[in-house]
Amino acid sequence: MNRIFLFLLLTTFTLFGQQNNKKIDLTHGTIAEKFDRLYQKSGKYKQYKVVEHQLILQLKNQVLDSLNKERKLIHTHINTITDLQSRIDKLEADLKISREQIKQLSEEKDTISFMSAAVEKSQYKMIMWLLVSVLLLALLYFIYAFKNSNKETKTAKNNLEKLEEEYNNFRTMSLEREQLLKRQLLDEQKKHQA
């Protein structure tokens, strides 16, 4: 009798559990919500919950499908992260190369090759202005020296002209005096011969 009673009790709970399970919708909601619905709608037997085997398998398949989808999504995200990391590494390498090129171009822009040596532009400007200043001073000195020499040359020419004029005058006067002396000598010789 105990066995019959136990069998009837189990059959009742199973039928009660199957009636409740038929109402359980496991097609919508999250996995946690599906487990909660299954737990709430399942039958009870003492401290146990009675759940239809097919519903457990259906829920298991849905959980496995969800896990597979999540694994695929994780794998896709890992691939995306790997791809993005490789892009980031490539961009960082390109950035490093670009920064080195910018540094090199900046150095080239700030320096000038002067007599086969790299000189900063500020130093180059200072050297050029110093050379221009020295050349300008040399030009001014040579202009001053030329004017002085020109002045002295004009003075010397004037003195030479005066000297030549005096010499010509002296020569003319000497010639006249010599001629006069020769005449006087001739006159005196004629006087002495006569």
Supply Rg. 64 Å
Number of domains: 2
Please tally the helical runs, counting DSSP H or I stretches of 4 or more residues: 4
Low-confidence stretches: none
As a percent range, the share of helical residues equals over 70%
Q: Profile the largest sheet.
A: 2 strands, antiparallel
Q: What is the topology, as strand order, of the major beta sheet?
A: 1-2
Q: Quick one: overall form?
A: rod-shaped
Instruction: Report the order of strands and helices.
Output: HHEEHEEH
Structural class: mainly alpha
Report the portion of residues in β strands: 5-15%
What distance lies between the first and last C-alpha atoms, to the nearest angstrom? 217 Å
Average residue pLDDT: 83
Counted beta strands: 4
Keywords:
4 strands; 4 helices; 194 residues; mainly alpha; two-stranded antiparallel sheet; 2 domains
How is this structure best described in words?
Helices cover 84% and strands 7% of the residues. It has four helices and four strands. It has helices at residues 2-22, 31-41, 53-110, 121-193; strands at 43-45, 48-50, 111-114, 117-120. It is rod-shaped and about 215 Å long. The model has no long low-confidence stretch (mean pLDDT 83).
